[in-house]
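stage 2 :: seqdesign
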């Protein structure tokens, strides 16, 4: 088994996948806690991430 740091592709891919995951989880928790403040809030969140 190879030891040491992961390949450069995986080192870059980690943060790239982590940021949208945190945004999606955070927006979901925010919607559960606050409820939809505006009628088109869900469309706004998903269009911003698309």
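stage 2 :: out
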């Amino acid at each position: 088994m190879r030891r040491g740091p992961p390949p450069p592709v995986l080192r870059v891919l980690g943060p790239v996948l982590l940021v949208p995951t945190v945004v999606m989880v955070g927006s979901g928790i925010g919607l559960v806690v606050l409820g939809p403040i505006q009628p088109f809030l869900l469309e706004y969140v998903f269009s911003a991430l698309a």
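stage 3 :: structure notes
- The mean pLDDT is 80.
- Residues 19-49 form one domain.
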